Amino acid sequence: METQEARLKRLRMRSWRRGTKEMDLVLGPWADAHLAGLGEAALVLYDEVLEENDQELVLWVMGTVAAPERFAAMIGEISAFARIRLAK
Question: What is the pTM of this model?
Answer without folding.
Answer: 0.94
